[in-house]
Design goal:
The chain is α/β, with parallel strands linked by helices. The protein contains 12 helices and 8 strands. Strands 1, 2, 3, 4, 5, 6, 7 and 8 form an 8-stranded mixed β-sheet that branches. Helix 5 runs antiparallel to helix 6 and helix 11 crosses helix 12.
Length: about 350
């Protein structure tokens, strides 16, 4: 790789509300800028991963896989921190998927899939951790003047991510950026901590800022010009060229060089075209067809019990009968008709066992 800079923090439209970047345009922008690689780090999801991987590989560009994660804030559940993880290898890719899944299934609050720090440490193998700039827990402590607490966190992350933790510095014109840069330079000397520069990219060109803010305001539930609307982004969060980033951080050249070093370290091969279906246990004495037929009958009977009971109640109170299934006038509560596959499995297995005993 000969380029002097690689973008490592980029959101796409798959972050749902805070980016206007389409995957193909991101890849093309990186190619046009002469960059050999680019990362995609959507917020708490990997929805665009396959599309990004295939598009980048097809364009001769190295895809760096990762994600921004919400990190639990023990002091305020409504204000989680934001950090970034990048996949070094297949183990990291697997751990990233599992971290995102755990956030959604076990710790989702206010529509945010939040990762707990202990999970992050448990599944740190194969992942590079970026501190998150002003939105990370380290950055927030620096902004609040709690430098000792920030340094303690840095030491903790360096221990849990040996040679894989980078202090992230940004210059996007947002409040706190320069405080974090200065603190990062001091910590770099004190702890032999590597710095890395990112631009926290949300749109391709500077002219796209207004369209980006329009999209964000919709997600925030505010009118675009409402003075109460939070202004979390700046017009400088566009896909800057290598030359622009090098000029912006000319006083910290290592922060630029480390983007290329990280890009070199991150190599993941995504297996495509192979489907892995669960091997669901089948009760003894039954094949798949028999078992599927059995649980279908059980499910149908359970649904009919709900439907017929509802119809009987309507008739008893003198309401006109309505079509039970189909039709726009149906009053059947679909939610009441849902059933649990594990419960049906248990019932079918029990019935099969009883039949065998007879």
């Amino acid at each position: 790789m000969t380029s002097q800079f690689v973008h490592l923090r980029v959101h796409s439209e798959y972050s749902l509300y805070d980016s206007t970047i389409r995957v193909k345009k991101l890849v093309q922008a990186a190619v046009d800028a002469g960059m050999p690689a680019v990362a995609l780090t959507d917020q708490a999801n990997t929805y665009a991963l396959v599309k990004f991987y295939k598009t980048a590989m097809g364009a001769g560009l190295k895809p760096i896989l990762g994600a921004d994660l919400w990190l639990e804030n023990p002091d305020d559940q409504m204000a989680p921190f934001r950090i970034c993880v990048l996949c070094v290898n297949g183990d990291g890719y697997k751990n990233l998927r599992e971290l995102v899944s755990r956030g959604y299934s076990q710790n989702q609050h206010f529509d945010k899939a939040i990762v707990r720090k202990e999970w992050l440490f448990e599944q740190s193998d194969g992942l590079i951790l970026l501190s998150g700039g002003r939105d990370g827990d380290v950055g927030q402590r620096i902004i609040k003047g709690k430098l000792e607490a920030a340094e303690a966190l840095v030491e903790e992350y360096m221990a849990q991510f040996p040679d894989r933790f980078y202090f992230e510095v940004q210059r996007t014109g947002r409040e706190g950026d320069e405080n974090i840069v200065r603190a990062g330079m001091a910590m770099a000397t004190k702890f032999q901590l590597p710095l890395v520069a990112t631009n926290d990219v949300r749109f391709i060109k500077a002219d796209d800022f207004e369209a980006h803010e329009t999209r964000v305001s919709i997600g925030q539930g505010f009118a675009l010009d409402d003075p109460r609307r939070p202004r979390d982004y700046s017009e400088q969060q566009y896909f800057r060229s290598s030359e622009e980033m090098a000029t912006l951080f000319r006083d910290i050249p290592s922060a630029i060089e480390n983007t290329v070093e990280i890009a070199r370290r991150c190599t993941v091969e995504v297996e495509l075209g192979t489907y892995y279906l669960p091997d669901y246990p089948i009760p003894e004495g039954m094949d798949e067809d028999d078992f599927f037929r059995k649980i279908s009958e059980v499910g149908l009977n359970e649904r009919l019990e709900v439907i017929l009971a509802g119809a009987a109640n309507l008739h008893a109170i003198g309401r006109p009968r309505m079509p039970l299934i189909g039709g726009r006038r149906s009053r059947v509560n679909i939610l009441a008709l849902q059933f649990s596959l594990p419960a049906l499995y248990a019932r079918a297995a029990r019935d099969s066992s009883q039949s065998g005993n007879r």
